[in-house]
Amino acid sequence: MSTTETISQLPIKGPRLVAVNNDALASSAPSYVKSQLTCGEVALIGAGPGDPELLTLKALSFLQQADVVLYDYLVSDEIMALVPSDTILVCVGKRAGHHSVPQEKTNQLLIDFAQQGYKVVRIKGGDPFMFGRGGEELEVLFDAGVKFQVIPGITAAAGATAYAGIPLTHRDYAQSALFVTGHLKAENDDMDWSTLARGNQTLVIYMGLMKSSYIQQQLIEHGRQANTPIAIIERGTQRSQKVFKGQLCDLSQLAAQAQAPALIVVGEVVALSEKLHWFGEQSAQQNQVNYA
């Protein structure tokens, strides 16, 4: 039986989708959005992991409606270029070891702009509810009586691994996926390392570069095999994306070569990237990895 005959037998119902070009899609994007950003309101938006084409239609529409946009360093330049030129831009980004704008100041700016009647967008990299302090900021807005809404984004764990050819789950290799933050202090560590070190699961660690040596040590001590495949994905989904691959025993060494923002991925599924890699160029280092 031919492929055409097989497809023709599928129980397809309803209207067929009609492809449109990018210009047509961009010009019609606002029509997809039923709710609007109102004066004195804050929209908390997830920008996704960096590729501007992963921004949702609703997020794009709200960015173009905003009077004021408060943004982080993790929001890519390509996405910020979509903001109209007459919009007020306020950088409230934070970097490891240096908070250029304290969180309390960011909270107060959101309140002040909204109470002055501005349409405010607070945009964050990835998804604002995934290690993004989005919930904390909305609690403050609620206490201040400020109206808000949330537009989720593709979290970095889902976007970066997809662009690196690493499926988060796979029936043969990983029946679960855990997302955790590596932004922790060893002297005050309450992580359940026994759970994190289980086999046949994918562990994705946000903000883990600075603690990579400690993470490597804890995972191996709690049962993860030293030769478990790992990847560090730097600037995932962006044109400058880099993927460093090796084994768990190499984690701290590889982390020394990577720059933030980066994700650490631990699990058997990483080895599948040799087959499933599709985005960008694989380095010689990547192709020489031996997971045996």
From TrEMBL:
Gene3D superfamilies: Cobalt-precorrin-4 Transmethylase, Domain 1, Methyltransferase, Cobalt-precorrin-4 Transmethylase, Domain 2. Residues 42-250 form the Tetrapyrrole methylase domain. Pathway: Porphyrin-containing compound metabolism; siroheme biosynthesis; precorrin-2 from uroporphyrinogen III: step 1/1; Cofactor biosynthesis; adenosylcobalamin biosynthesis; precorrin-2 from uroporphyrinogen III: step 1/1. It is an enzyme of class 2 (transferase). Its EC number is 2.1.1.107. One of its GO terms (molecular function) is lyase activity. SUPFAM superfamilies: Tetrapyrrole methylase (SSF53790). One of its GO terms (biological process) is siroheme biosynthetic process. Transmembrane segments: none annotated. InterPro entries: 4pyrrol_Mease, 4pyrrol_Methylase_sf, 4pyrrole_Mease_sub1, 4pyrrole_Mease_sub2, CobA/CysG_C, Siro_Cobalamin_biosynth, Uropor_MeTrfase_CS. The keyword Coiled coil does not apply. Keywords: Cobalamin biosynthesis, Lyase, Methyltransferase, Multifunctional enzyme, Oxidoreductase, Porphyrin biosynthesis, S-adenosyl-L-methionine, Transferase. CDD domains: SUMT. Belongs to the precorrin methyltransferase family. This is uroporphyrinogen-III C-methyltransferase. It comes from Vibrio qinghaiensis. The lineage of its organism: Bacteria, Pseudomonadati, Pseudomonadota, Gammaproteobacteria, Vibrionales.
